[in-house]
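Appendix B. Raw example, untouched.
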Amino acid sequence: MLTVASASPLTYPSNTDSLIKMSDDELAEVEGQALFNLNKVDDSNQKLSFFRLGMEAEVALNANIKKLQLGCGGSKGAGCDIDIDNIALTGITTSTAQGAGVTTDFILNNPFIEFAISNANSASTRSIEGFRLGALSALGMLSLGANEDTSDLADDTGINSLSGDIGVRVTNANIRGINVTLIGTANAKVADYSTVLTVDRSPKFSLNGLKAAARLSLGGFIPMPIDLQLDVNMKDIPFNTVHRLQVSDINGNPTSGAYLALQQKDIKWQNIATGQWNSIEAKKGWWLSIPDTQFANLNMDGSGVRLSALEAIGGVLGATVDIPKMDLGQKPVSNCYGNLKFC
């Protein structure tokens, strides 16, 4: 479903039988807004000119994509820049009920297409170095893949490889049932955490420097639990266990600067909301940039995690504990009508 609402609806006078002559002063008092606008911005540092065609409108999307593959093979060799199974674009919802996303919309405000041109003033040598699709702001839920069993990493599908920079804020994350050899089990609450994931054709990512408060329940010989303050690294997490990315800032407001781009060399694109050039270069090939996402409500089953007694004792002393990869406990938003589904 695609809905486009103009940011400046047109109105017409009731009597359109004749034109009315207006003076220059009267014309100066008239305000109007075009549906489309064209801008040109030069960046001398990159020796590029950027031509942007923007739409002064709000676009509401509710869509499912069964398979998205971009930038496969080519000069970068085997693999794909972006390879994702079962994408759903919906509004923000925490429900896991069947069809929870079908009445919601992913909102793009003032979408645009932009071209990066080298030697823009020379007809004989100008060339397109890249283009991107983006929006002034974006708000919604990006659901990915499937996860029937939230305790089993083996059945997760979704992102097979990704190229891009994703700003991630982890909130309300818990790990339950971590096994500590010869001692007992521990439940941990992860403190709020933020980072920027920058990856190029990667099937995995890491979250380093997490802080977690854990309670270790001991065997019967010591009835009192022990509280641990852990420094935690979660390394080599498969991207296919990520099933919900809420595209918004921490307060649930739209995020600016999101785009999908293709370039034949590394390019720093502009955040049109702030006018600043991005500090992270979009790498050659396809590149997805989402500056703000909320990675919320992770309820991870840690029963497959085994920590040694020495690691647990190290936690009491403030040592860093490496947590092996696990299912992050997310399910994608259901965005299927009746029996029509691949998501």
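End of appendix B.
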